[in-house]
Write a structure and sequence with these properties.
83 residues, alpha+beta, 5-stranded antiparallel sheet, 16% helix
């Protein structure tokens, strides 16, 4: 899969979690196989730090976009057996 193909996939909101020290918002595609989460550190009650993004293919997490895009080269939407 190329980056252009990835950009055409619609992602939808899945959940949001607000904790004392950070906020996490997750998104997924319709198949549930691709996703990403935005993690935003909380400095104090009204101030937030710079967000970082973690990417997911099935159960594998990628902490950089470069590694995620590299893994997407071998990705296809073929059926994956349930474990």
């Amino acid at each position: 899969m190329t980056q252009e193909e990835l950009e055409k996939i619609p992602f939808h909101f899945v959940s949001h979690l607000s904790m004392v020290d950070e906020h996490v918002t997750t998104f997924s595609d319709e198949s549930g196989r691709l996703g990403f989460c935005k993690i935003t550190p909380k400095k104090d009650e009204f101030t937030f730090g710079k967000s970082r993004t973690h990417y997911r293919i099935d159960e594998k997490i990628f902490k950089t976009k470069e590694k995620f895009l590299e893994a997407l080269k071998d990705f296809s939407f073929k059926v994956v057996p349930i474990k």
